[in-house]
Amino acid sequence: MTTSSGSGLPFRVLKKATDMFARDTGFSGPELHDLFAEHTDALGPYQGWGGGAASRWQVFQDGVNALSPADQRSFLLALCDYDGYCKYGIPSMEDRSALRAMLLEDTVPGATAAGKALAKLTDWTAVTRAWQAALDKVDTDREGAITATRTMLESICKHICDERNAIYEDGWDLARLYKAAASSMEIAPDQHSEQIIKQILTGVTTVVGGLAAMRNTLSDAHGKSKRVSPASAEACEARRQRRLCGRRILD
Predict the structure, then answer these.
(1) Which residues, 6 or more positions from 124, have their beta carbon under 8 angstroms from its beta carbon?
(2) Which pLDDT tens digit goes with each residue over 38-77?
(3) How far separated are the first and last CA of the chain, in Å rounded?
(4) 3-state secondary structure of 208
(5) Which of 125, 114, 143 minimizes the C-alpha distance to 217?
(6) Does the reported pTM lie above 0.70?
(7) pLDDT tens digit string along 74-87?
(8) Residue predicted with more confidence, 120 or 103
(9) What is the distance between the alpha carbons of residues 78 and 57, in angstroms, rounded to a whole number?
(10) Please, what is the average pLDDT of the chain?
């Protein structure tokens, strides 16, 4: 991982993480050195066996600050799911959920603005409900968040078709609904000849297809195999991509 001279995290996030993993609960000094050694060599070997070691909270913050901003978030998100041994005990599920939510809340720029834009639209209640459902579930119900992501895009497409008198069927999948909505707004790739415009519009279509595939394999809409459930990052990415697609259509 790359290193950074300072923390890219808000102070409240770093403090929350420090309190959880390097104070009353969390890791010992040697454990922290071993933990960060997998990501950076900035801390070096543990030197406190004879006394005089840095405080655990200092070691923790030095280790976090040695990571790039993106790696800091990834590292702390992984700690939220850590279920191994630590000398002072694993932080409570409530604390880990709170920290996870704090780490994820700033990773979807424009979510608040998009929500306000939706609130101004009339007769778009279904879209607004799906939008809020995805925001609420991204931390506590990751599979449900992915399903809500697709539901919102489907609702957007149907609302647009309704407003533009475009024909569609309720049973159509997301890809077909998006194609109908895009065509009604003249933003389908095959409706443009300029290469750069076609490339942009094709990219949006690709993202929509990816979200549909993610929902089919990782959401709560189907029976489960022994596979690992979607991570917070996957649910957050689905939400981010949904927001980008939704704003592109609405704009």
Answers:
(1) 118, 155, 159
(2) 999 998 888 877 666 789 999 999 999 999 988 998 899 8
(3) 37
(4) helix
(5) 143
(6) no
(7) 899 899 989 899 99
(8) 103
(9) 18
(10) 77
User: How would you label 27-53 residue by residue, b for 16+ Cβ within 10 Å and e otherwise?
Assistant: bbbebbbebbeebbeebeebeeeeeee
Burial category of 132 from C-beta neighbours within 10 Å (exposed 0-12, middle 13-18, buried 19 and up): middle
Question: Under a CB-based contact definition with an 8 Å cutoff, are residues 187 and 166 in contact?
Answer: no
Angle of helix 174-184 relative to helix 195-218, nearest 10 degrees? 150
Contact, 241 vs 211, CB < 8 A? yes
Token pair for 28: 């010992």
- Asked if residues 182 and 205 have their Cβ atoms less than 8 Å apart, the reply is yes
Render the burial of 8-25: b for 16+ CB within 10 Å, e for the rest: bbeeebbebbbbbbbeeb
- Looking at the chain, how many residues does it have? 251
DSSP state of 14: H
- In 3-state terms, what secondary structure has residue 232? helix
Q: In the structure encoding, which two tokens stand for residue 172, read together?
A: 């159509």
